[in-house]
Amino acid sequence: MRGDRIFGAVMIVLALGYILTASRIGTSFMSDPVGPRVFPYMVAGVVILCSVSMILRPDPEAEWPAGPMLLQLGIAFAALIGYAFAIKPLGFILPTTFVAGILSWQIGGHPARAAISGVGLGIGLFVLFRVILGLGLRGLPAGWGF
């Protein structure tokens, strides 16, 4: 129970920092009427509500992972941290393919199917974000093409 309350309090502090950071987002003359800050404020609001819920009603019988599951969580965490650092220099497709493959494999997929899932997600999400939604993503490292 104490772990849930500590985690809830830490998340509230992080959400308040997120709100502070979002409040510094500049508004251009061509923004929509709502502005660019609303989505980060909404995310922080949901995090605060969930955190307050964890503080007021903690899980009395929380089971913490041990052994191999901690290793799996560490691999997933390292992959996502690496993804955050790799997406700018390597573009969207390569890091997304790699991390999606790792996470698909961890969920329990066969390595070959996880690799195919990673390639499909990397390319499919790029098409969704770039072509359909019109976001300015760079697909591959500079000089490689798109």
Automatic annotation (TrEMBL):
<feature type="transmembrane region" description="Helical">
    <location>
        <begin position="114"/>
        <end position="137"/>
    </location>
</feature>
<feature type="domain" description="DUF1468">
    <location>
        <begin position="6"/>
        <end position="136"/>
    </location>
</feature>
<dbReference type="Pfam" id="PF07331">
    <property type="entry name" value="TctB"/>
</dbReference>
<feature type="transmembrane region" description="Helical">
    <location>
        <begin position="68"/>
        <end position="85"/>
    </location>
</feature>
<keyword id="KW-1133">Transmembrane helix</keyword>
<feature type="transmembrane region" description="Helical">
    <location>
        <begin position="38"/>
        <end position="56"/>
    </location>
</feature>
<keyword id="KW-0472">Membrane</keyword>
<keyword id="KW-0812">Transmembrane</keyword>
<dbReference type="InterPro" id="IPR009936">
    <property type="entry name" value="DUF1468"/>
</dbReference>
<protein>
    <submittedName>
        <fullName>Tripartite tricarboxylate transporter TctB family protein</fullName>
    </submittedName>
</protein>
<feature type="transmembrane region" description="Helical">
    <location>
        <begin position="6"/>
        <end position="26"/>
    </location>
</feature>
